[in-house]
Amino acid sequence: MNEMTWKSRWSNDQIRSMLIEQYDSFWHREIGIERSKIEDVEKAADLPHAIIISGLRRAGKSTMLAQVAHKLGKDRFYYINFEDDRFLGFRAEDASDLYQMLVEIFGERKIFIIDEVQNIPGWEHFVRRFMEMGLKFYITGSNASLLSRDLGTRLTGRYVPIELFPFSFSEYLKFCGEEVPNFQRMTTVERSRLNNALNTYLISGGIPDALKYPELPLLRTLYDDILYRDIATRYRLDAVTALKELAFFLISNPAGAVSFNKLKERLRLGSVNTVISYVEYMENSWLIFTLNLYAFSVKRQQIASKKVYCIDTGMANSVGFQFSPNTGKLLENLVFLTLRRKTKEVYYCMTSDGYEVDFYLPDQRQLIQVSQRLENMSTREREIRALEAAIKEMPIESVIILSDANERAIEVGGISVKVQSISEWLVNQESS
Fold first, then answer.
1. Is the pTM of this model over 0.85?
2. Residue 7 pLDDT
3. In what order do the strands lie in the sheet with 347-350?
């Protein structure tokens, strides 16, 4: 029996109605605050490359494309959302029929805006073919494999990858209508408001819809969608309970160091390969990130414990379980996300004496230590001791301690260590 094709499931009138509905809904959607990443999109606008925006579900990818669309103009693009269930069964070979229908409805245009393209197997084939015809593509997807090396081969290198995270702290302030103060002339009231905003941001996170509708359990729903739709369904997993237990453990321990072997034993997951695969699926779905130990030996990097960070501190708060407030670890998680927005070259350090430094940026030869407060003398000494040990063992050019307030620089191992307010550092990173 011949399998029914996508086009044979629907009449031309039904397909026409769907495409018009999608376009009208997209054009009239609320476009929100302008995201900082839109600058990267605009820089690539005149290139013949496809622009591929990847990131977590509900992080604002479609909204940012709507912002791009309004800059382009209403009559310059086609819009397709492959998350629509009416595209079930759509294949890459159906793209020519779809294109013909779009031309019949909207006339000839040179730009495609496509949402959630990862739902179509082999999508890169029709994108490449249409690009060779001179068409421009803006594409979103919720799978990190969209930015993989393999994709570069399939699109012959003709794409610009852009990662979109939930709101940064600066974007959160803009969303809340808070002005960023002049750090050179901050009043006590302004400093207090900024720190209060950081505390709220730490708890609520940066998922736009969750901030807009705080009365709804949207973070929990999003978390479940990722586990069931983006991971269990996509990778055809039978052991959903094991996946849930592992995800819950990792989300409940932000900034925690984990050993895959110990996770296998603790959660009785059968094999280390199962743990590795599940963690990889969670990373591909933008739920978590893993951070490697910095070591000159690749083998040591591979076998050492990894640190795990959640894509959003609000989700970690909403979904995870803690016996007590975990502000210090959430602040470290927040600093990691800020660093990761700029580079993938982020590591943590462990000295030969067992002292840990939260982050090392090898390109800048910079150490970053996060400490909620430095008022306690034993805490201060512990942080300085770890930095001093790392400075002795590694090529270091600059060091920062991020804490609750600015202080005078500290001399450690012959290097002047900057002590900076986390809230100010977060805002400055956005503008640098």
1. yes
2. 82
3. 347-350, 356-361, 366-370, 398-403, 415-421, 407-412
